């Protein structure tokens, strides 16, 4: 299986074996004799080939290695003994007979996971030796899901990692939060490292990494694991390792899928008759006389004809997605390579939304000499999401009697003439829009292994360079209701480099084992941008291609620089694989901090581990196969503020003076030259266990984070000329519990059933703000409460006809929202507001059931997030004096229906109530059915492996939320980003994975 090929420790074993072969016969990869050659293929329990297996003839000591398709060839006479061995599998012995073909199936070792090698940052370690909180994303999530971004594979599948898909815009990236939120206004996203070189802070994103190229993903969560990344570690670290070549003949693989996208849930607008009835009810509730059946004259022709327009249908389309990936890997003992190319094309469910990604990768490892290895990791990614876009918000607002087209076939600008509050939701399709990014990334390394008395000492130099050009542009012309024509062009580039000097030393002295790592690194990023714009074009013919033709010209430019210098030391010690100790210290100096500080900070950590099952008193305890206790404590930092925040700057502005346009300056940023990073102190306790021959295994962890010196954006009186300033003030705490449980429920010859359960709780709270013991009401920050809360009035129902409102809410009338008088003063005021709930979930979970029957595999993953409250933008649809359509599902109060949940159409939400709602949900996240073809069929097809599958994502959501989706951040009109309102989609794909011999 590919997953076995990519384990770093296994690759090392393969490499050692290859060197042995070279010593025996340097001219041939496979050991041969003049006598009988035994050939065959080596498979795992699922029927997949196992590359890199060592086959040793015990009689002649000759050795061979299986190739990328599990095939091998070795000389063996009758009666000679062949031993098949590979790390993580139980060795098998076969006595050669008269047959010349011997196919072998290897079974996985019961304690295979304990021997797995995991990436821990600046190195690897056996899982049984890990003392920090390091979680590997299940390999099945990486290889068997058709996703465009690796975070989509992680969502709900790793305890303590909250991945949220707030919108499904093609090419967008989900947000990730590891172990909750420590900071209030500084960045909270995890630090991402790819092949040992940072991706974060280079301008790139995980969208630039093709999921098909990823071999493993590790997530570092506690201070012992993250402190090695110092000032970037407080929000957790995601380590990504891409695939690399192995010894053997070239293996060509193709992975591809194609499918369809649809809106997972549609918040249907009212039909024509329902819309007309709503208008009549609105006039009645507001005491107006109805003069026509619809609000606008322009709607009458369609109303009289009985024809309607389904605007949501007009603004949406059948979404499609396809991805094709081809890779070739192989090599000799001296040179190993992995080359891949990928093409992704996605057409969104809303018209005009498209995303195309083309990627190329080349990973190379060369053993120059017995002591020198060099290699590269190069990739080029081009992202394109050009195209004007339809407006779903306006599509839901349109009258079903509105006119979509003019007589000449162009889009009617105001479908509900003379109403001009809403324009045609399809006008965006007439605009020119460019949005393109490229990531050219080159990483290289050189590693020297010292011989003799210095055996165990290695020096590695990592060098990384990233170039990211970006281009955006737009032209809005007459067809889109811009009678002057407006053009805008934006060009930017980011140049980043990383240099790392890493010295490692490994030594065993009897039962004592030492691993020492030292690091000196430097990072720099330079960013430049230029903008140009113009208004007033004679016509729309040239538009964006001739900005100089505009009557009024604007331009701008900006650049900045970021730098980080770091030193790190780490000691790992174990005694008899029972007692484990890890000590780490990192010193960082960051350019983002103030001139009045040292700019340097020290981030230490310590962790201990106890492999209880390795104790002598556990030898006769057959029930328990693995039991390890881990404790850690350490300090990490967060520098997640923009550059130049420590400097007071001013911006330019044009203003009239004596009838002439003059350039002046206005306050822009109030600097703080004493600004430093946030500091988070983390304690972690974990228990790893395995019982019943590891049929039940898992991890339980508890943690507590205490963050001080918050990078807090403090509000200032506007009379100062500045609205806010960053200061190191305030404190937060953050604690939680995480459980991961893996069970083998049934293991038979043909049928197997496995389950993985993840569960995590998280609770954060603000313990201090400005040192005065007071809340910050304006920012909704409250001492002793979670960082993100909903603070509003407590709705208790709807005022009904005949109820006396005079004493409590004199402005109310039947159909108005009824609120609780919490302070008991007999009236509703701002003092009656209270905390209604927290925005982040109180707990999250995931349940994966995997069933195997012969060559058929079925995986069902269910995700849940519970205990969060959000203001519901879908319920705050303003009727806007009866001028817009509203969702049929939401409804409204009338004297007849006496609703207790929805107000009257005449109600004006003068208090700004946000309709706080329970946003908890449980989702059937993905289901995948696959079939792995047997070796007999593959032999007939002359293929190495073949798997076909069907997969569905976001199949169904169980929730009390009323709206598009509880995970969505669906914006209302005027919020600034309403054009990108794009609900969650449901996806179905068919896929194929095949390798050639």
TrEMBL record:
Gene3D superfamilies: Carboxypeptidase-like, regulatory domain, TonB-dependent receptor, beta-barrel domain, TonB-dependent receptor, plug domain. This is TonB-dependent receptor. The keyword Transmembrane applies. Belongs to the TonB-dependent receptor family. It is a multi-pass membrane protein. It is found in: Cell outer membrane. One of its GO terms (biological process) is siderophore transmembrane transport. SUPFAM superfamilies: Carboxypeptidase regulatory domain-like (SSF49464), Porins (SSF56935). Residues 127-237 form the TonB-dependent receptor plug domain. It comes from Pedobacter jejuensis.
